[in-house]
Specification:
about 80 residues, mainly alpha, about 0% strand
Length: about 80
């Protein structure tokens, strides 16, 4: 008899992709457009994703944070919600 044994344990994964304001697992032109549309607005519970620098201000995106030509991708975020 084994005590304290639980068998196989699955570890959860979490992916964070800076600049992915739409939450689709990639940084692309839709993220730039969404952030630009909120530029200058106060950060709220509805637009906090657009505060890319997490400094409490939504500013126009810069190439430092958004560079769709490099194609940053986050498989964990992209696969979110898919059943295995």
């Amino acid at each position: 008899m084994q005590t304290g044994a639980f068998g196989d344990v699955a570890s959860p994964q979490m992916g964070v992709l800076i600049g992915d304001t739409t939450g689709n697992g990639a940084v692309n032109s839709s993220d730039i457009a969404q952030t630009q549309s909120q530029s200058g607005q106060a950060v709220t519970s509805s637009n906090f994703r657009e505060d890319v620098t997490a400094n409490g201000a939504i500013t126009a995106p810069t190439s430092r944070w958004f560079n769709p030509s490099q194609g940053p991708d986050c498989p964990a975020a992209r696969d979110r919600g898919k059943s295995s």
